[in-house]
Design a protein that fits this description.
The chain is α+β, with helices and mostly antiparallel strands. The protein has one domain: 2-Layer Sandwich (Creatine Kinase, Chain A, domain 2). About 45% of the residues lie in helices and about 10% in strands. The strands form four sheets. Strands 1, 2, 3, 4, 5, 11 and 12 form a seven-stranded antiparallel sheet that branches. A three-stranded antiparallel sheet has the order 6-8-7, with no helix packed on it. The chain starts with a helix and ends in a 12-residue tail after the last helix.
């Protein structure tokens, strides 16, 4: 009896449907700290030569002033996406002077909290709003957390693909095209949560961190050297409970069984007071310190491994966009920066992600019960903290199975999706990527996390020494491959336009900021549009 996955793969393999399978888009957001030549956090403002962090479409900052974020345009092929990411890096290095881009997800040795600058976006109401939001994050999570970096992978399938599936399945007769697409992306997210532990085993690259990062917090890490803490079998401490977490979010689990329940949960969180934050208030000595005292200031504060997304319009909130126009793409947020790759990710990882996400999109994805959700969370947590432990088991439908056995089975289930993608290209790039990952399951020493620990040995087991050496190596690569005159002119143009846009915003009449925040708060209400069965 053919499964839903095999039926869908066969349908998309038909000649008349090949074009829709090739029509999806991939984009990457790469975060990276600016550091000085000694590997310490840079104390310079965002370089004006790069443009405005508020309005530049490809070069901005994330939470800390020194945490750069590079955003590629969306491309049909991951090879083109990574080429664009490489171009952004090469241009940035042409403007950074002696500064380096940190090669790791976990930050360098950090100064005291009061010396970590929060990202600044100018004096306009929008820029001030973004800054105050980050003040709130510093208050709630600490500034050290605002220096963690990752790779975000934005992924969409051609909207025509969803219509093809809808025409051949009963669900298409019940839902509008927009509703079907939104629910299909939510189904993809559910499967991602079921299986994303595999990505952490294969690509986790943060088994160590700087000893000062935890700022005195209780932990169960082991000492590797005087300046380095680790867990011997960890894959990604960034994605563990040592990362971007706090008590307020611990009970927040947005429902992913349909878009309405997901939006409702986030809407509640941005409107529900949280007593510890209420005690702090929104202002201190007349200065704004957080946008509100609720569980979340805004919906993007919810830290998840994957999000349903929709490109927002000016002044629109993410919840509003999802309510009004449905899900457009998904954002995978769990990928560590690969410290061995100059841009933090390579094509092979992208090919595997594409096959994995296509599998998640086409595989049957029943609703998730609270018990199942807890099980998926536990599998993920085991993998990030001890994924390479010999004999480690995960909970698979109530039974404990070895991670390596389940992982190998999962890659075999993904293989037909990889082979279908290869038929579009006329090569074996996706199948080859799958084969490389399969070897990591057979030999854990091939995983990035194990490779990091191995490489540290040449640097006295010092995370900071290893990370600085990799940062210098990547800097040498980018500086020896400067942007062409045409590339430099393109980015110079983007920078000039972005600075002019920010200046125009700041010169325009500004409403009272208190009123601006009140209006922003009141814009998160939306009406139910989908039926959740």
């Amino acid at each position: 009896m053919p499964t839903l996955l095999t039926r869908r793969l066969a349908l998309l393999a038909e000649e008349k449907h090949r074009a829709v399978l090739a029509g999806g888009l991939r984009g990457i957001e790469r975060e990276t700290l600016r550091v000085d030549r000694a590997g310490h956090l840079a104390h310079t403002p965002h370089p004006v030569a790069l443009g405005s962090a508020l309005t530049h479409p490809q070069i901005t900052t994330d939470y800390a002033e020194t945490l750069l974020e590079f955003i590629t345009p969306a491309e049909a092929d991951i090879g083109a996406t990574i080429a664009k990411l490489d171009g952004i890096h090469r241009y940035a290095y042409s403007k950074l002077g002696d500064e380096l881009l940190w090669s790791q997800s976990m930050p360098c040795e950090l100064p005291p909290e009061d010396q970590i600058e929060i990202a600044w976006y100018g004096t306009s109401n929008l820029g001030t709003l973004k800054h105050v939001y980050r003040r709130g994050l510093a208050l709630r999570y600490g500034k050290a957390m605002q220096c963690i970096a990752g790779i975000h992978y934005n992924y969409s399938l051609d909207e025509r693909l969803w219509r093809v599936l809808a025409e051949h399945e009963d669900g298409g007769k019940k839902l509008s095209a927009r509703a079907y697409q939104s629910e299909a992306y939510l189904a993809t997210i559910r499967n991602f949560r079921r299986y994303s532990w595999l990505l952490m085993y294969l690509f986790g690259a943060s088994p160590v961190l700087s000893a000062g990062f935890l700022r005195g917090r209780a932990h169960k890490l082991e000492t590797l050297s005087a300046d380095t803490l680790y867990l011997p079998y960890a894959t990604s401490l960034r994605m563990s409970d040592l990362g971007y977490q706090n008590d307020a979010q611990s009970g927040l689990s947005p429902h992913e069984n349909c878009l309405d329940s997901y939006v409702a949960a986030l809407t509640k969180a941005v409107n529900q007071p949280y007593q510890p934050y209420a005690r702090l208030g929104t202002k201190r000595d007349g200065e704004w310190i957080q946008l509100n005292t609720n569980v979340l200031q805004i919906e993007n504060e919810y830290y998840s491994t994957i999000r349903p997304k929709r490109v927002i319009q000016t002044g629109e909130r993410p919840i509003q966009a999802l309510c009004a126009r449905g899900v457009q793409y998904i954002e995978v947020r769990c990928m560590d920066v690969d410290p061995f790759e100059p841009v933090g990710i390579n094509q092979q990882a992208g090919r595997l992600l594409d096959a994995f996400l296509l599998f998640c999109a086409l595989e049957d994805s029943p609703p998730v019960t609270p018990e199942q959700s807890a099980r998926y969370t536990e599998n993920f947590a085991r993998t990030v903290k001890e994924g390479r432990r010999p004999g480690l088991t995960l909970n698979h439908d109530g039974a404990e199975v070895p991670l390596t056995v389940w992982g190998a089975q999962l890659l075999e289930r993904i293989r037909p999706a990889a082979e279908l993608l290869d038929t579009l290209r006329g090569d074996s790039a996706h199948a080859d990527a799958l084969a490389v990952q399969a070897r990591k399951l057979q030999d854990p020493s091939l995983t990035p996390s194990a490779q990091v620990l191995q490489a540290l040995r040449a640097h006295g087991n010092s995370f900071n020494a290893f990370a600085l050496a990799q940062s210098e190596k990547h800097a040498a690569y980018f500086r020896s491959h400067p942007p062409s005159a045409e590339e430099a002119a393109y980015f110079d143009g983007l920078a000039a336009v972005s600075l002019a846009e920010q200046a125009e915003m700041e010169a325009a009449p500004q409403t009272n900021f208190d009123d601006y925040v009140a209006a922003y708060r009141n814009s998160n209400l939306c009406q139910s549009r989908l039926d959740c069965d």
